[in-house]
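Box 3.1. Reading complex inputs
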Amino acid sequence: MLKNVRFGNVVLAAVALLSGWLTLLTLLIDGLADLRQLLLGWGALLMAVAVMAGVINLLRVHLNRLLTQSAGWYSLFMVLGFGVTLLLGLLPAVPGELFSAETKAALQDFSFRYIITPTSAALSALLLFVLVLAGMRVLRRPPSFLLLIFLATAVIAVFNLSPSVFTAEETGEVGSTWALIWAALTQVLAVAGARGLLIGMALGVLATGLRVLLALDRPYGD
Amino acid sequence: MVTLITLGVLAIFVMVLLAFTVAARRPGAQAVSLRELEPLRDLPTHVGEAVESGRRLHVSLGHAALGQADTVTMLAGLNTASQVASVAAISDRPPMITSADGAATLLTHDVLRQIYREQNASERYTGNAAQVVGLSPLSLAAGLTPLVKDDAIASNIVIGAFGPEVALLTEASQRQKVATLGASSDLTGQAVLLAAADQALVGEDVYASGAYLSQNPGQLAGLRAQDVMRWIVIIGMMVGIALKALTPSN
């Protein structure tokens, strides 16, 4: 039976379990703050390497798509954008004789102000329309109890976000029936529902995390 | 005091989890009956159809990252992804798993390599099976939209950390008539998926999907432990409310 156990897996499991339990204990016991800082420092270093690995993977996938001509213009724009952004990021390291400090700052500012920020803003704006479209599609689904609750909640949420429709403080109707119903809907039912979901999810997170810490699940192999 | 209570709850959870796991692994242990989750009931059918049609399954872990607050969400998503991959690995177009985190992708490669090796199909494993598509939530969603069309995706399974930006993917999938099963650890993402995805998991079901798909007794024991802890939390809250109500205010 022991022949089937790979030494590498044992080492990986031991490192994962030890660091997992140590991190958990340092979060619960105040006297272990220094150890927590040390572990977090190591973690941050590993995270930086992981980000590099992610960037290399991203670039490799898109270069592969370009070479095999399996994608449209997206990959070309991605690779070009990556190259330009990388060059702009490396500009401060270029000796001052080639570019003045003002030119470097202006080039970086240009890329953020006129390319990156507007593109992100445009995508966010597009998201708004997509969300409205998704809301419209819900109406075409066969009716169900959950759907009815969902739609009623969405309508109430829209009212809640609109300017002072039922805001008791502004209308001076604190304690009125409407104000009480409104408070019951938005502060009791909504908060209770959200807390119920969050407590359930917290238990799910705990169960999944503990299964990894107890080595009942081992999401690491080679 | 708070630390003691936290350690106590943790100790109880560990004991309950271990007790159910040991009981589930005992020879002759009875099968656990679970409430039916409609999205997960249909998932094996979607996976089978994708394999037969020669199209690719796409699983996205979202922007959940290893070492961050949503590490466990990423692991839960990866568990589901590995269940799907182990069934669909024989397909002409093996499943593709995407994320927004380099470490998550490295771990995904590791899990996939193991699955292919166990099936004696290591030669079918390619470096493109796990991909980083974007490094932020919005860039991930933007990067996923062309994938649906370009990679002949049969079904999307988005399970992990997703905010409202997941609507970009569901919209692109709707246009290509590609079904999407969605589950997010983010409440806003859950609401969007409930409206925009064909099937959606809500609340703690995000973390239960791996156990439902694998039917592994050990993982199912985790769900039973979760149910026991839920009752303990409910009783604790009721006792707290009663004590609060009975304590005379100054």
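In summary: The first helix of chain A runs from residue 7 to 28.
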